Amino acid sequence: MNALFSTLDSLRNAWRSVAGAAANDDTLRVKPDLPEKDADRVRQRMQECLQARGGVVSAKARAAGLGRTYLDLDDIGRRRFLHILAHDFAVPRDALEQAIAAYQHADTARARLQCEQRLRDALKLPARELLMQFNALPQGVKFLVDLRADLRSYGQDDAWLLSLDTDLKNLLSSWFDIGFLDMKRLTWDAPARLLEKLILYEAVHEISSWDDLKGRLDAVDRRAFAFFHPRMPDEPLIFVQVALSSGLTASVQTLLDPRRTPVDPERADTAVFYSISNTQPGLQGVNLGDFLIKRVVDHLQRELPRLKTFATLSPIPGFVDYVRRLFRHNAATASLPEDEVAAVAAHFGHTDLDRILGDDGWLADDTAREVLRNPVLRLAARHLVEDRRRGRAANPVANFHLSNGARIEQLNWLADTSPKGLRESAGVMVNYLYKLSDIEKNHEGYRETCDIVVSNAVRSLLPEKPS
C-alpha cells in the first residue's frame, strides 16, 4: 500500500480549509499520470509558489493546492511530479559556478568571507524552499514524511530523485530527534485508531487478532510504549513492546504463548524488549535519537524498582542472506572448527548451509538441529560483530541497539521457529543487554570507533584472532 494512502482523506480535508481561506481553490486539475501538458502547468505552479506573491494566506493556499494535486496523482504521475521538483528546481548551476570562481579569486580574508556567504546563497535549493512551504500547512510534516517514502520507492535508479531524497532526509533529520519526541504508555483503553495502527505497523511479530493485541497490552506482565512528534501527534513513530520476566527470555514462542502463566510484576527482575517497530517508511535513515530505549528503561525502573536487567529479544533480519553471501564467496565454513564442519557433512552429505537452511525439513530432525547449532550460532556471531557497512554494524537491528548503548549478550538457538524467523534469521535471536552503568560508554565507543561490546559467551563463538 502506498505510504500516502492512509492519510489522503485527512490531508485533503485539512488543506481544503486552507485553500478556502483564499479567493479560490488553487488545486490544479490534472490527469493522474501527469502527461507533459499537465506537467508544464505543475512547473508553473511550483514557480508561483516560490515567488510567494499575494501574502501569507495566498501562499499557503497555493502550496495546499499543489499538495492536493500531488495526492490526486497515481504512481506514474507522482514520480513525474517529483522529478520536476528535483530537476527543474535544483541548485542554479550558473550562480554556483560564478560563486565558486569568485571564491577562487578572492585575495583577502574579508573577500573570502563574502564569497563564502555567496556560495551558501547559491547552494540554497529551490526545491527545499518549496518543501518548506508544505511544512507550514496542517499535517504538513506528515505529508513530507510520506512524500519521502514515495521518493525512496521511485528514486533508486534516478540520480535526481536520489539527490532530492538526500536533501529531504537532511531536512527531516533537523526536525526529528529524541529530545523532541513524547513517550506515552499504551494500554487496552487507548483510542481504537491508535490500537489499529499498532496492529498495522507491527513489523517484528505479527499481531494476529484483537485478542492477541489485548494480551500484549492488558496482561499484568506486559507493557507497550509509543513515541510521538509534536507535529505528528496522531502518528506514532515507534512502538516498543516489553515483557516482564524472571531472567532473560530465550524463545519468542514461549514469550508470546497466550497460555503462559503471567509473571507477577512485583517479582519480575527483568524487562525484555521483544518488539521495536518503526512506523514511518519516510523516516528510514533518519536518526530519531540515541538513548531512545534508555527512556523506556528509566520509566520502567521508576515504576518497578525491582527490575535489574533490561534486555531485548531481537531477530537478526538478513542473517540468512549473509550466510548465502558467504557461500557464494566460499567463505562460510573457513572460520568454523573442522569437527563441526565434518559433522554437518556426515549428516547432510555436504556442507552447503545455505541450501540446508533454505529447507525447513531440518527443524523436525533432532540430530540435524544439534549438528547445526554451533556452526549457525558462530556465523550469527560473526555477522553481528564483524560484518560492517560504512563503519557500522551491517545488521540494522544490531546497529540500532549498539547505537543506543547496548552490548551483545546472548545468542539463542531456535528462539523463533515461525516461518519468518526461519526465513530471515535461521531461527536465531539475540539478547542485547542494556546495563545502565555502561550505556553511555558503549554508545560513545560505538559512535566514535565502532567498538562493539560483546559478552564472553558471544566472544567465544567468534574465530580466534591470529596472534
Structural summary, described in words:
By secondary structure, this protein is an alpha+beta fold. The chain has 4 domains: about 5-90 and about 125-175, Up-down Bundle (Butyryl-CoA Dehydrogenase, subunit A, domain 3); about 95-120, no CATH class; about 180-310, Aminopeptidase (3-Layer(aba) Sandwich); about 320-460, 3-Layer(aba) Sandwich (Aminopeptidase). It is built from 21 helices and 9 strands. It has helices at about 10-20, 35-50, 55-70, 75-90, 95-105, 110-120, 125-135, 140-155, 160-175, 190-200, 210-220, 250-255, 290-305, 320-330, 340-350, 355, 365-385, 395-405, 420-425, 440-450, 455-460, and strands spanning about 180-185, 220-230, 240-245, 270-280, 310, 390, 390-395, 405-410, 430-435. The longest helix has 21 residues, at about 365-385. It is globular and about 75 Å long. The relative contact order is 0.07. Residues about 1-5 have low confidence and may be disordered.
Strand content bin: 5-15%
CATH class of the largest domain: Alpha Beta
Largest sheet: 5 strands, mixed
Count all strands and give the number. 9
Helix-and-strand structural type: alpha+beta
- Please indicate the count of domains: 4
Are there runs of 5+ residues with pLDDT below 50, and where? 1-6
CA radius of gyration is: 26 Å
Name the CATH superfamily classification of the largest domain: Malonyl-CoA decarboxylase, catalytic domain
Judging by the overall fold, what is the CATH architecture of the largest domain?
3-Layer(aba) Sandwich
Taking strands numbered 1, 2, ... along the chain, how are they ordered across the largest sheet? 1-2-3-4-5
Q: What is the approximate shape?
A: globular
* SSE series: HHHHHHHHHEHHEEHEHEHHHHEEHEHEHH
Average of per-residue pLDDT values: 89
Number of helices: 21
Q: For the terminal residues, how far apart are their CA atoms?
A: 53 Å
Helix content: 40-55%
CATH topology of the largest domain: Aminopeptidase
